[in-house]
Automatic annotation (TrEMBL), chain A:
Domain DUF6504 stretches: 402-489
InterPro entries registered for this protein in UniProt: DNA/RNA_pol_sf (IPR043502), DUF6504 (IPR045443), Rev_trsase/Diguanyl_cyclase (IPR043128), SulA_CellDiv_inhibitor (IPR050356), UmuC (IPR001126)
Any single Pfam family the record assigns to this protein: IMS
CDD domains: PolY_like
Keyword DNA damage: yes
GO BP term, pick one: DNA repair
UmuC domain sequence ranges: 7-123
Lineage, uppermost ranks: Bacteria, Pseudomonadati, Pseudomonadota, Alphaproteobacteria, Hyphomicrobiales
Keywords for this protein: DNA damage
Gene3D superfamilies given in the database record: 3.30.70.270, 3.40.1170.60
Protein name, entry field: Protein ImuB
Family recorded in the similarity comment: Belongs to the DNA polymerase type-Y family.
Domain of life: Bacteria
TrEMBL record, chain B:
Protein name: Protein ImuA
Organism the protein comes from: Mesorhizobium sangaii
Domain of life: Bacteria
Stretches for region Disordered: 312-339
SUPFAM superfamilies per UniProt: P-loop containing nucleoside triphosphate hydrolases
Length: 491, 339
């Protein structure tokens, strides 16, 4: 029995058959139930866990149709339009769903109808019924008002005027109903009867292409899965070729026998359709996920879907039959690294127009951007002299500038004579600078510490190592004394 | 001195003998497979192949990356092997700037030949945190490597970094691979380096293994160089060297291991404008540069002091034999011209 807190008291939110046999009811206070039967077992409700379970079930139902939607906290909508023939008809499919759920240990009610509303009613009030198109009215007429998916308040007021079944509501004149009980009642009624279309919003976007294989004997070995991926990719290739496209994002869904679903997605830098390459990428991904994927009793359905596709430009091979494209090699290499180590494993620097050194270069995950192949253009003579003689920049930059201790400077605004960095003392032999870099006032607030001006010095220590230091803030300018940082290293 | 020369001759003679017995050239000097296209090998020895012989060293002419410094190239018998794993060591983590700078200058030399190909720099998160992340603007300014040509790979674990490096080492679409590791991890043993070396050999691309704060240990790399930074000379201006300024990057290079070279020490200077190395000969600058060029100035011509000609060649210099005559040296030590 499961309790939850409702209206300042612990009440029963769900109970099993044996508890029902003890004449316990929903919404009964826990104290009352305990008084009646001191030995009952009560568990606190956990809505998050229920939600996760429902989503897991929805994942599993993906095997029947890609259009699966969650319905409140205790239901699933499956849009099986055009899918039933794959499972041998509507009845066979419904039986298959019910028996598989039963074997997984779930007590499931299902209904199948032409409209979501009628299916909802059929599942809850006429167990396991298949309602043919046009029979919705006959189905709903004898059912209680709850079958119409209406608010409890509306339901009680309908009952108070003597309308106790859906049939009675259908028979009543529409205009007074709408006036008295609001438009939602008629909307629900029309949706259930198929007079209005009701959209079921699926949880996941539908993949434009997917191929799946049902296995009579579940597979457990990673090698078998990889081989299956190769076969599925070969089947995908035909479709991709017909559409003139290549896959940019692929997902592999592994349906375990006991209902758990693993979803493995990979991205590619350029559109891809070669089965070997796709298999290689999944090889890396599966190798990385080895611990996370629990094969258990094996997977009985493997599906490979193309989540995003893009136009594929074919390349002409040269006479020797070899396509020489270094870019493709690198794209594939980057894809493999990323499949195994995550998206940030291959980075690419991008220069940004900014005076602040740490902002002037951004590193982004590798993308197949149009890489420059022509040599860069010479600096324009009309450009500012700054760019003709660019200031020296270090070859390594610390992610966050490291604070250093500067005991003394020759001049108040000058470079330090010596400094302590990572507990070691460095003597400054020579120094160049300062190069003053002001903060970007359009980004930082003036009160912000990062907004103070920096004076950069390029210094060399006694052993010939060259560093880039800066002093943040000015002497005498504000109450806060300036602080020194080491920001980068020169060659 | 004579003893050294005799010992060297003996070693070379023995090597030649071993090579004759084994019927192969010494391993270090073997032409890499990628450098010699298969067709040539299949067709037998009648096909024209140019082989460069320098003493016992014999190889295809483009198997080596000449550094452009004659003395160093001669010591390495032609330069660094182009299709191989090369180790570049730094004694301490704070030398990371010099070590990375030297590797990047080699990369820059390679990029002169293979234009447009990208460079991949792999490092563990640890080293990027300790020594700083490569800064694309600085790399462009100092080594002429375009940001578009750069790829970085940061792996949280050494195993992953090694895996990426192995995958990258066999790519012909990369101009060079730089793998940066800190310390002496157990995973980076003889086997791991041998795998890297074999892949680099078959792809014909160099792999630079940067090891910060590491002790030398047996690896498969044919060459190990130990790099430290050297005090830079002042900047050149039309009016002569500018006192107190910091000029071009300079490195002190020690050959830690090479199958042909004797241990030696070189001071190289990188010219970012021409993207070439210069060697700094003799002891132009004392260990402590302040003694020569003081910050406070006061001297009229600091360059004269820094260019003092020594009366005797430095004792123990490995290549004392090829010190140029006095007149030449004095000319060499004169003020440098920019460019």
């Amino acid at each position: 029995m499961i309790s939850h807190r409702k209206g300042n008291a612990q009440r029963i939110s769900a109970l099993d058959e044996r508890a029902e046999a003890l004449h316990l009811k929903r919404d009964m206070g826990i104290a009352d139930a305990r008084a009646m039967h001191p030995s009952i077992d009560i568990v606190e409700a956990d809505p998050q866990a229920d939600r996760r379970l429902l989503e897991g079930l929805a994942d599993w139902c993906d095997r029947y149709t890609p259009l699966v939607a969650l319905d409140a906290t205790d239901g699933l909508f499956l849009d099986v339009t055009g899918c039933t023939h794959l499972f041998g008809g509507e009845r066979a499919m419904l039986d298959d769903i019910l028996s598989r759920f039963f074997h997984q240990g779930f007590d499931v009610r299902a209904g199948l109808a032409a409209t979501p509303g009628a299916a909802w009613a059929a599942a809850r009030f006429a167990s396991d019924r298949i309602v043919a198109g046009g029979e919705e009215e006959a189905l709903l007429a004898p059912l209680p008002l709850a079958a119409l998916r209406i608010e409890p308040a509306t339901r009680t007021s309908l009952e108070s005027v003597g309308l106790r079944t859906a049939g009675a509501v259908m028979a009543a004149p529409r205009a007074p109903l709408a006036r008295r009980f609001g438009a939602s009642l008629l909307l629900r009624l029309d949706q259930a009867l198929g007079r209005l279309d009701e959209a079921v919003s699926p949880r996941l976007p539908v993949a434009p292409l997917s191929v799946e294989r049902h296995l009579s004997e579940p597979v457990t070995l990673t090698e078998d899965i990889e081989r299956l991926v190769g076969m599925l990719a070969a089947a995908l290739k035909i479709d991709l070729e017909r559409r003139g496209e290549g896959a940019r994002m692929l997902a592999l869904l592994l349906f375990r026998v006991d209902g758990a679903v693993s979803r493995i997605a990979i991205g590619t830098s350029r559109p891809m359709r070669e089965p070997q390459l796709i298999q290689k990428l999944f090889h890396e991904r599966l190798a990385a996920l080895e611990q996370d994927i629990d094969a258990g009793y094996g997977f009985d359905l493997v599906r490979l879907s193309v989540l995003t596709a893009a136009a594929f430009d074919t390349q002409q091979a040269d006479l020797a039959g070899e396509v020489t494209d270094d870019g493709a090699d690198i794209a594939l290499f980057a894809d493999r690294i990323r499949a195994r180590l995550g998206d940030g494993a291959v980075l690419q620097p991008v220069t940004v127009e900014s005076h602040l050194p740490e902002r002037a270069v951004a590193t982004i995950p590798f993308t197949e951007a149009p890489r420059r192949t022509t040599p860069p253009k010479k600096p324009d003579r009309m450009q500012a002299p700054m760019t003709i003689f660019p200031p020296e920049r270090p070859i390594r930059l610390f992610r966050s500038p490291e604070p250093i201790e500067v005991p003394a400077t020759e001049m108040p605004e000058g470079p330090p004579l010596n400094f302590r960095w990572r507990r070691a003392l460095y003597r400054v032999m020579r120094a160049e600078g300062p190069e003053r870099i002001a903060a970007e006032w359009w980004r930082e607030a003036a009160s912000d510490e990062a907004a103070s001006t920096r004076d950069y010095y390029r210094i060399e220590d006694a052993d010939g190592r060259r560093y880039w230091l800066y002093r943040q803030g000015l002497y005498g300018g504000s109450q806060v004394p300036p602080r020194w940082f080491l920001h980068g290293v020169f060659a | 001195m004579a003893m050294t020369a005799v010992a060297r001759e003996t070693v070379f003679a023995l090597r030649r003998q071993i090579a004759k017995i084994e019927g192969t050239l010494p391993e270090r000097l073997q032409a890499p497979a990628a450098a010699a296209p298969d067709a040539r090998v299949d067709a037998g020895p009648s096909i024209d192949v140019t082989i460069v012989r320098r003493g016992v060293a014999a190889a295809l002419p483009d198997a080596f990356l000449p550094t452009g410094v004659e003395r160093l190239d001669a010591a390495l018998s032609g330069g660094l092997p182009k299709a191989a794993l090369s180790e570049i060591h730094g004694i301490e983590t704070r030398d990371a700037g010099a070590v990375a700078g030297f590797a990047l200058s080699l990369t820059s030399l390679i990029l002169k030949q293979t234009q447009g190909l990208p460079v991949l720099w792999i490092g563990t998160s640890e080293i990027f945190r300790e020594a700083g992340f490569p800064y694309a603007r600085g790399l462009h300014a100092s080594f002429g490597i375009e940001p578009e040509q750069l790829l970085f790979s940061e792996a949280p674990k050494l195993v992953d970094a090694l895996w990426v490096a192995e995958e990258a080492a066999r790519m012909t679409a990369l101009a060079a691979v730089i793998l940066e590791i800190r310390g002496n991890p157990q995973r980076l043993d003889l086997t791991a380096t041998r795998r890297l070396h074999a892949r680099a050999q078959s792809a014909g691309r160099p792999v630079f293994l940067l090891r910060q704060a590491a002790e030398p240990e047996p690896t498969a790399a044919p060459v190990r160089l130990i790099v430290a930074s050297a005090p830079a000379v002042p900047r050149d201006t039309i009016a002569g060297p500018l006192a107190g300024s910091i000029g071009r990057p300079a490195f002190t290079l020690t050959i830690g291991k090479s199958r042909t070279a004797l241990p030696g020490q070189f001071t190289l200077e990188w010219n970012p404008d021409e993207r070439a190395f210069d060697e700094r000969r003799g002891e132009e600058r004392a260990k402590n540069p302040v003694a020569v060029v003081s910050l406070s100035g006061g001297r009229k011509d600091p360059a004269a002091a820094s260019g003092a000609v020594l009366a005797f060649p430095p004792i123990g210099s490995p290549a004392a034999g090829d010190q140029p005559p006095q007149g030449q040296r004095a000319a060499h030590l004169g003020p440098r011209r920019a460019g």
